[in-house]
Write a structure and sequence with these properties.
Blueprint: H1 2-9, E1 18-23, H2 26-33, H3 40-55, E2 57-62, H4 70-83, H5 98-118, E3 125-129, E4 133-137, E5 144-147
Parallel strand pairs: 1-2
Antiparallel strand pairs: 3-4, 4-5
Length: 151
């Protein structure tokens, strides 16, 4: 995606021309056609495409990778060289799925709530414990005693 954006931003012709941007990444091309995006890099690329399309006829084309297309081979070589460099760019090096972030956030919130509960003085809660009864738990002393109260 970064290379596609860089390509778009480096087209500086002022006259109306036809521009074909070729990529061997179907994922990039499908992402640019998508209706919803959460990535800043994708949003910036789409905005750059829209700005370019005001004065140019723009086509995005898929080319098969590693099949002797000279420009594609050059792009692959440059991408391999760039992969060896330190990371520079707007996106995180390791993206995290939203579900993982939600899971960790819920776990953190549960721990924080538990810590807060442990500091409350004088409260008592009965926690269900299979058929034999309930466990009385007092948060601030950490003791648990089994009672025979059925609710």
């Amino acid at each position: 995606m970064y290379v596609t954006k860089a390509c778009i931003c480096n087209i500086d012709s002022q006259e109306e021309t036809s521009v074909a941007i070729c990529s061997d990444s179907q994922a990039v091309l499908k992402t640019l056609r998508g209706a919803k995006t959460t990535s800043n890099l994708v949003k910036e690329t789409i905005l750059a495409l829209k700005a370019l399309s005001v004065s140019h006829s723009v086509r995005l084309l898929w080319v098969s990778g590693h099949h002797g297309v000279e420009e594609n081979e050059i792009a692959d070589m440059l991408a391999k060289q760039a992969a060896c460099l330190d990371f520079i760019g707007p996106e995180p090096v390791l993206g995290l799925p939203n579900t993982l972030i939600r899971t960790y956030t819920r776990q953190w919130a549960d721990k924080e709530q538990s810590k807060c509960w442990q500091t409350v003085e004088g409260l008592c809660v009965f926690v269900p414990m299979h058929e034999s009864g309930w466990i009385k738990s007092t948060p601030n002393d950490g003791r648990q005693s089994k009672t025979r109260q059925e609710m």
